[in-house]
Amino acid sequence: MAEETEHLKELITGIAKQARAASLELATLDAAQKNRALEILADRLVAATGDLLAMNQKDLAAAKALELAPAMVERLTFTPERIAKMADGVRQVAALPDPVGEELERISRPNGLDIRKVRVPIGVVGIIFESRPNVTIDCAILCLKSGNAAILRGGKEAFHTNMALAEIIHEALTEAGINPLAVQLIPTTDRWALNELLKLDKYVHCIIPRGGETLIRFVAENSRIPVIKHYTGVCAIYIDAEADADMAESIVVNAKTDRVGVCNSIENLFIHRDVAASILPKLARAFEAKGVEMRVDHAAGRVLEKINAGGIAHGVPSIDYNYATEDDFYAEYLDYIIAVKLVDSVDDAIAAINLYGSAHSDGIVTGNEETAKRFMLGVDSATVYWNASTRFTDGYEFGLGAEIGISTDRLHARGPMGLRELCSYKYLIFGSGQVK
Amino acid sequence: MAEETEHLKELITGIAKQARAASLELATLDAAQKNRALEILADRLVAATGDLLAMNQKDLAAAKALELAPAMVERLTFTPERIAKMADGVRQVAALPDPVGEELERISRPNGLDIRKVRVPIGVVGIIFESRPNVTIDCAILCLKSGNAAILRGGKEAFHTNMALAEIIHEALTEAGINPLAVQLIPTTDRWALNELLKLDKYVHCIIPRGGETLIRFVAENSRIPVIKHYTGVCAIYIDAEADADMAESIVVNAKTDRVGVCNSIENLFIHRDVAASILPKLARAFEAKGVEMRVDHAAGRVLEKINAGGIAHGVPSIDYNYATEDDFYAEYLDYIIAVKLVDSVDDAIAAINLYGSAHSDGIVTGNEETAKRFMLGVDSATVYWNASTRFTDGYEFGLGAEIGISTDRLHARGPMGLRELCSYKYLIFGSGQVK
């Protein structure tokens, strides 16, 4: 056992050292050479469709034996169409502008020093992810394009598919004249190996965990390397007293039901007390139609009770709802459930969002600009919307052209992370003999 | 004992929660109110000179009893002049532009969404520092100006002085109508308390350790909160074959000897083999005059040997030098010692700097623009100089107006950190009912 962990340690240290060496080469490559590698990779992925499907079958067989959930098996499954789509994605990243070398600032000092702040790769980026094998290609190409060496650690469910993809990446890099160790897949999903990697702050500069909360928490607690976390979100919409009712309904229903299992869908709805009676009935029917369960606070419950009481006389079917506990407002359902609370003012809505939410994506629906501005200033979230669905928090929707994830941290990158967010910067200082 | 740690845990959690609440208020303050607090603080510091000196005496008495090194006692000592200077520093920060609210980017999407990326405070910043009490004021005012709540944990040597300073800060905040818990000093230097703080990622968003390597490593290894490290530096100058000899000498001597105990002074010197014989004699005499010991590789040693042999015939006193071990090139002397190695090319110099250095500040002296560009691209350091001393790596020299430190990390902030680097950003998205 001790021998085995010693072996793992050597393996991981070797990978990290080679990645560091490769990163120094990558940082000096021009865009053309990186793009050539991406074009070759796209072609090779399509050409290897048969081999990839065969390796994917191995993972699918193991998934069957392990009785994985159907949704998980579905995400794991390659088809010729999915492989073609993956190759298209690679070509799209090749077509994006190279972030490396972009000048961010220029400072001229009285002593004649000319200081330029330019974008450079971070160095070595470790990405820890689960299940979906197309993430392997996504991470590899975004790191390559941004000049970073990548160390990838995928989930065990996709192990064989990932190994096959890594092989194709190595071939493409080699053909393009790039050190193939610029992208390395850790050939084991052992938790010990991951733990070793997280100690190697001498060689690895950034860790991006993508996946479930348990994985992310494990990484954040054990890493000596800076981590950019990608937790999912507890998002909310606040319907203000001056909201357009139709717009409010449309935004809330979209933000809740367009896809329920994603980080930028909403879990909480706050409604100004003055408009609850007018907004809730139609909204409740819309939720009903979509199969969304409402969990409401006592104030909202009283409004619904009254509506139902009024409706009974006219033979209107009752609106269904349950009462929320305090915990419901902290919950990330990722399901057809929404917690509803009435508030007295925009300030109450701001306080509720800052209290219950996860500072991911939150929105206000209002026709009042002053109220909107107050909300946007006060809500401490990565993305704050005025009169739009929270579902737009996404690298593609932001026009970044690509996305490695959505950071829930506040340092370095916040919100959608594209190629630029995979970069650091350095200062180039041009002098003529200046001394201090 | 268990009771005591439980008490500490409660104390620290309380501080962190209060800081979080204060940070939400701070984030919405306008520049005028923050600046008013700074002006009041400056006045109060001067007015409290007598009290501060009295509290400082307590620390100095303890320092005497503990037989602290004279340099440390010197750094700990307040004088009326130092207090006045500190107050001036506070007024200077008040005069700087407010980074909060600055628009960083604007994206207009085809669907009509208007996306604005604006600078916002990080939230709650924990700063761990040692000995010098003026750091307490520096950190407090930079956090306040950038809208961050600060949790300060100073060294035990300055405990009484720091407590007195914290009291004055609270009074100034209160007088300016700002929540005084926006700046809190942890009223204990217990390591357990620090450890508790490092776990509170729910309330604290960033930790900045400033001090010795042991402290920084402890923080990096134990923190669940993102850390921006401030290690010191192993910096170098490379004298190219096409360097102006006088400029090279002036830059190298300045970068080594202007102040030896600072992070941006050099520890290594790399010289192109072709110019070693012409550059080394004068440079060695200059080092001699400043009391700098040269530790040279074998190639440089042979050159010096030959020079000495030639000089003996003419009665020239020998140049003193010692041979370097491999470890010498990794060493951070912070002393009157320099390690010297000959290299064959700019590429060798780049490789040596990337191998031995700490990616802090490195420079080339050359008249050849192509060589300089190759060096600036290839050297993977936060600041890379062409024909200037590395001693300019400093927030003030960069024109930032203030400095919380010099980050040796690659994420978020790299190199000198001013007010902007104490900020995060958020996206404000203006819609007209868009749904996905």
UniProtKB/TrEMBL annotation, chains A, B:
| Domain Aldehyde dehydrogenase: residue ranges | 15-292
Q: What PANTHER family does its record include?
A: DELTA-1-PYRROLINE-5-CARBOXYLATE SYNTHASE, GLUTAMATE SEMIALDEHYDE DEHYDROGENASE
Keyword Transport attached: no
Q: Which GO terms describe its cellular component?
A: cytoplasm
Localisation: Cytoplasm
What Enzyme Commission number(s) appear in the record? 1.2.1.41
The similarity comment for this entry is:
Belongs to the gamma-glutamyl phosphate reductase family.
Pfam families for the chain? Aldedh
Q: In which pathway does it act?
A: Amino-acid biosynthesis; L-proline biosynthesis; L-glutamate 5-semialdehyde from L-glutamate: step 2/2
GO BP terms: namely: L-proline biosynthetic process
- Tell me the enzyme class: oxidoreductase
Highest taxon above the source species: Bacteria
Reactions performed catalytically: L-glutamate 5-semialdehyde + phosphate + NADP(+) = L-glutamyl 5-phosphate + NADPH + H(+)
**Where does the secretion signal sit in this chain?**
none
Which GO molecular function, any one, fits this protein according to its record? NADP binding
Task: Quote the gene name from the UniProt entry.
Answer: proA
Role of this protein? Catalyzes the NADPH-dependent reduction of L-glutamate 5-phosphate into L-glutamate 5-semialdehyde and phosphate. The product spontaneously undergoes cyclization to form 1-pyrroline-5-carboxylate.
This chain belongs to the protein called Gamma-glutamyl phosphate reductase
Which keywords has UniProt assigned to this entry? Amino-acid biosynthesis, Cytoplasm, NADP, Oxidoreductase, Proline biosynthesis
